[in-house]
Amino acid sequence: MSDPVCKLILVGNGSVGKSSIIARFVADGFEKQYKQTIGLDFYEKKLLLPRDKRVVLEVWDIGGQNINSKMLGKYIYGADIVFICYDVTDAKSFADVEDWLVLVQRSMGALKKQQIYAVGNKIDLVHLRAVPEQKHNEFIAKHKLAGGFLLSAHNGDNVMRTVHQIAARAVGMELSEFELQFYDAPVKATVVADSGEHRTAMADEIEAEDLKLEMKKRQKKSCHVM
């Protein structure tokens, strides 16, 4: 018995980083394929899921197709999963997500209901963020989408976790938080010049602990003074 195949399409404005997200998939082992009948590239990988489940995920690269493209609806039709992508640093790209959703829903077809997700890219650019997470969640709830994700194609944060989660859902399996954590990529911090001083609670705790140890050392030394 062959493994189930899930087709993933990414749509959204041209500047949101769809190509960068696909490049991240490729970096994580997706192999390029070509469908001659429609002259389009897609990337394929067999995902090994927990509980001995497998699924072949196809990520379709529709390139620079804009929302008015006559072919776009044909590409979307038959997809199992659709990512409506936007850039969290670009409020306009988020505002246009509404129009992309209308197109996706119109192209769905009667035979299959896709899993539609809102996906915010570039979360590593914290200092430039223009779309708060609350707005992201409100959009998902308003339109009753299957869910949503916030990720960074640049550093890989949340990408493979997202991929495995949506692939599992497509075959009727919900992964636990414990299972998902194994797909988390190490997050690379980007240092941004800032005139202000920002301290975390963790930094304060470490400093306090160091201070206690230093005090104990001094007390021990003073006890040996005659």
TrEMBL record:
Keywords recorded for this protein, A-Z: GTP-binding, Nucleotide-binding
InterPro entries: P-loop_NTPase, Rab, Small_GTP-bd, Small_GTPase
Region forming the signal peptide: none
One Gene Ontology term of the molecular function aspect: GTPase activity
Organism superkingdom: Eukaryota
Pfam family, one: Ras
Keyword Nucleotide-binding: yes
Gene3D superfamilies per record: P-loop containing nucleotide triphosphate hydrolases
UniProt name for this protein: Rab28 family GTPase
Source organism per UniProt: Thraustotheca clavata
